């Protein structure tokens, strides 16, 4: 494992201030809980939150981030468009992006997908079972046949996303729905992974299997080391019109 | 709609001879039931069965079939390898193939997929709900958000197939599993669609939504009219070594 | 064939006003040239251009368009964001979109792809040969092994697009580059096809094979007839907590 | 990097015995040349050849191989079907497989693809340029915009393979063809990568960029550590019929 992988966990960090249940489960915020297990996995994990200047995503911070993790819900609209554009450009330039749960509706995810990213939802303390449908994918390493979460928010199809390049998990919900809950994409020189679980009123990010998926995803999403593609006007590599035709 | 589409429905036709429940639901065999609604949809639908000479799949029959539908279960091993090879070649040459239910374990499907095509299964009269996950796909035309079947056999993941080129349906099962139940592939110049439902002891092929999917799939799978690709040793299209380099 | 398919050909229509060569090749504009062969193929083809009110894309026009074809180059920035948003929503709701040549840099294509859509380019009157790599795709119907264009602008990789759902053509260029020149996507309930050829100073849209691809693509991209997916808060389909567990 | 990755390089090793040019370029055989640079990259690389007992692929050897590399051409038919079946099963159980050049026609590749794997070809000492079309893929790490090979055998489309899960390289050939030359697949719990270059009469496997691709591919193809999926008859995870409906 690359023990120098630099991960920034971004969180809007609002529920934790106002919802006692969320505060009880994540007293330091979801971002700190996630950063903790990434650190334990040997990564160089920091955090950034909405209310910091530039949402904590300065040019320096973005430039030194290999993989960005994104959790947002209540305040998607408060994220400045300029910051969203910078994050999008960094993804196209190679930074990995892991979008969690309600982040499906974030500006950055919608911008990278090109679709509404809308879905069905329900809060009913119901059981979710995430089945592995891509057993050869590194994001499924160490994960059993499925991950069972006794209580979660339901997300249901149709989830308005482009067909994933790789579909890794599909969820079964007690109330009768299914959901494509682990979806991998590439965008430019970067990789994007959407992972469904993590409603703020359940201890989902304390679940070891969920943690393992996020650790795996961070490794998978790390930038590939190569020069960025050259684009624009170019000279020919071969002589045009040379052949007698 | 192409009202000259020539479809052959192949059935091993064994359960209908020995299982009273299957015989009651499909007195003329599953193949006749399917051919009937294809005919009603304006197609030129015929049938072929295991116990006919060459399993009913003579060279002439295959050559005049645009789309072949396959139902088998008990007697996969009795299908001659030579016939399987001919069917495979016809698919590569453009014939559509629709594999139904227990046909996942047929020689022809395994040959075209390259994997074991194994899965979990259970017969427990349980509810299946097939969710549409590809709303823009022609195979989903006229289908609502989902198709609900009150009782079916369960098939569960991991289904050992290559990742589908297009995943159109995913099933929810009452017992806790999910399944990629509508999977589209291309092989050579042909198209292949796997569709999960259709256990012989349930009236699944009498369900109008299931019928609609199969009609849609037959249209989708029809051959594209163009010359077959040229392969083998070829002369250059451009002069090699002509440029001063 | 659906002879009621309603296609709108949108063109920025600027080169044809200012560049004598473009005007000579397309005296009525690229849009009229394309609409003509779509009409000959039995479609109900209209046009819309940048300088019309609302760029010719009123709500009524969009609502009655099954497939929109887009050609733009010089004036991408002049297309109003509000119109782009409406077109994007119509695609998500099922309208097909065919983006031609320099339309790769249009606001609508970039919005639907989520990437920069940048590429290499060169104007050197060089030969392009578009090879069919998906022989079973309906967009390749009636097309030979390749389409050869004696002179075209070069577009080269890396083309910054999401990996196509289906890659149908790949171009060879005399100057040494290759390009993914026929790329199919789905977005929401709609389909998108990008097709590379068509620089304004070459008679590319008078080429019968190029015309055939565009006709095929319009048929392929037509909306699938079904209700739009339901999204938002929903009630459970099964009783939650009913089982003794 | 995993310096315990166990790679077996399989070679039919016939050209090197009979063709002076092949022998001059690869005096110890292509397998030894490849194993050498894998060893230099820190891998535990061994070899196996056609004329060894069981073609060098005993059960023990296969069980202790993480990634198998395959080069064959003249003697595909001499490879025993039983060994092919064992290799296929090992891939489905997680072993990576890298198929090189004329291995496109090997029994193992055809069995895993389900297609003819046929193509166009020409031996004319012509230039090949492999363009990277997937800049975010780990197999492209450290590779520039393209790899240029001054002389190679030509392979041309249509290459009869399933659409790759990930297309990483596409080749330009001097004689006018293109080719999907770096194709990634998953099969069962295993990964498969096809890489085009490497005709026996050119020093292709001495090219550092080609070596880098093969090293990258071996890392990418390594097995994911998790239990194999359970299949067959299973008990329900939820009580069936429990809900009042």
Question: Can you offer a commentary on this structure?
Answer:
4 copies of one chain form a homotetramer. Chain A is α/β, with parallel strands linked by helices and 245 residues long. Chain A has a domain at 6-117 and 182-225: Class I glutamine amidotransferase (GATase) domain (Rossmann fold, 3-Layer(aba) Sandwich), CATH 3.40.50. Chain A is 24% helix and 29% strand. The first copy, chain A, has 7 helices and 10 strands. The first copy, chain A, has helices spanning 15-18, 20-25, 30-40, 59-63, 81-92, 107-113, 208-221; strands spanning 6-11, 44-49, 67-71, 96-100, 120-132, 146-156, 166-173, 178-187, 190-195, 232-233. A 9-stranded mixed beta sheet of chain A has the order 2-1-3-4-9-8-7-5-6. In chain A, a hairpin with a 2-residue loop joins strand 8 (178-187) and strand 9. The first copy, chain A, is globular. Chain A starts with 5 loop residues before the first strand and ends in a 12-residue tail after the last strand. Chains in contact: A-B, A-C, A-D, B-C, B-D, C-D. At the A-C interface, helix 6, strand 5, strand 8 and strand 10 of A face helix 6, strand 5, strand 8 and strand 10 of C. Strand 10 of chain A pairs parallel with strand 5 (120-132) of chain C, so a sheet runs across the interface.
Give a brief outline of the structure.
By secondary structure, chain A is α/β, with parallel strands linked by helices.
* Helix and strand composition category of chain A: alpha/beta
Q: Give the largest interface pair and sizes.
A: A-C, 44 and 44 residues
State the low-pLDDT regions of chain A, or none: none
Instruction: Estimate percent helicity of chain A.
Output: 10-25%
CATH architecture of the domain at 6-117 and 182-225 in chain A: 3-Layer(aba) Sandwich
Mean pLDDT over all positions of chain A: 96
Got a strand count of chain A? 10
Please give the count of helices of chain A: 7
N to C succession of SSEs of chain A: EHHHEHEHEHEEEEEHE
